[in-house]
Design goal:
Elements: H1 5-8, H2 10-13, H3 20-38, H4 42-45, H5 61-88, H6 92-114, H7 120-130, H8 141-144, H9 161-182, H10 185-192, H11 195-203, H12 209-214, H13 225-241, H14 252-268, H15 275-282, H16 288-295
Helix pairs in contact: 3-5, 3-15, 5-6, 6-7, 7-9, 9-13, 11-13, 13-14, 14-15
């Protein structure tokens, strides 16, 4: 198989035609995830957890104090309501800036009190990016009520470049995670030996789905060090393989399957919260032609948007 990196790299792909429905579906699922994430009880529990002194975010202390005073329940409610507007695609270009701000504020509060960037890491950049896209041209109330007067041009890259940028974000998240496991070297070698994987499976067993289904370990987690070493090496291979996204689209399907299998395994052993986020970002890795055929998008001239 000969790969033409000049034609298949992410920058070249941004110039190619895309799918309005693919971008709209990404908007819908992102809105669903924001609604779900912002409605969690973890925000209320944060009131009973001491703020780690070493945890910092980009906002000054005065703003952080203001955010903490209104995060629960006011910012929660605002974020959830705005996410529903995003999901429905109603007044999208007006609510997106406010949703981006409320989401960043709300989850900066969550991060500061829990030292846990998930789902912050996956969502914040794609959400901000949507502010500069035409993500509500289809599958939206904006289109239904004719709040946006335009026709779809299947030859335009206006729907392609945002999703290619999201695919680059996908690559960044996983490649950075793989590199972080290997560097510095004095930390990378213990990881490769499987000690961290063994600790995760051992310490989270009682919280794992596997325990609730089978009520016993898959095997003796205090032995078989080679299994944990193999799992650690496999995770690094999967994460670093995401670098291929930047150079070619030919391995997108394999990467999606590998990443989802990794997260499914983590879910079963008690590491939750990644699977649905990975699925949402994976929408950007699917070829636009699939959605063009599914929704029968046709090449039509573009009229000026209102």
């Amino acid at each position: 198989m000969k790969i033409n990196f000049r034609e298949e790299n992410i920058l070249s792909r941004m110039e190619k035609p895309g799918s309005a429905h693919q971008l709209a579906l990404f908007r819908i699922f992102l809105g669903l995830q924001i609604f779900y994430s912002s409605g969690g009880r973890l925000f209320q529990l944060s009131d009973y957890v001491a703020v780690p002194a070493e945890t910092k975010n980009i906002f000054p202390d005065m703003l952080n104090q203001l955010i903490a005073s209104i995060a629960v329940p006011h910012l929660q409610i605002i974020t959830q309501v705005l996410s529903l507007f995003l999901l429905m695609g109603l007044w999208t270009k007006y609510i997106l800036p406010f949703l981006s701000i409320s989401f960043l504020f709300l989850f900066s509060f969550y991060y500061a009190t829990n030292n846990a960037p998930i789902p912050w890491l996956y969502i914040w950049f794609p959400l901000v990016l949507l502010n500069f896209t035409r993500c509500s041209d289809v599958l939206s109330l904006d289109k239904y009520f004719r709040l946006r007067k335009l026709q779809i041009n299947a030859l335009s890259n206006v729907y392609r470049w945002p999703l290619e940028v999201v695919s680059g974000w996908f690559a960044y998240i996983y490649v950075a995670a793989g590199v972080a496991k290997l560097l510095p070297i004095y930390k990378g070698w213990p990881w490769m030996q499987g000690g961290t994987s063994q600790d995760i499976m051992y310490n989270r067993f009682l919280d794992s789905i596997y325990f609730y289904v089978f009520a016993k370990p898959l095997f003796d987690y205090t032995e078989y060090a080679w299994i944990f070493a193999s799992l650690s090496v496999a995770s690094i291979f999967i994460e670093l393989s995401c670098i291929l996204i930047l150079f070619t689209h030919r391995f997108h399907t394999q990467i999606i399957l590998l990443v989802l299998c990794m997260h499914l395994f983590l879910f079963l052993i008690g590491v939750m919260g990644f699977m649905q986020l990975a699925i949402i970002l994976s929408i950007a890795l699917i070829q636009p032609g699939f959605f063009n055929k599914l929704f029968k998008e046709r090449e039509t001239p573009v009229t000026q948007a209102v």
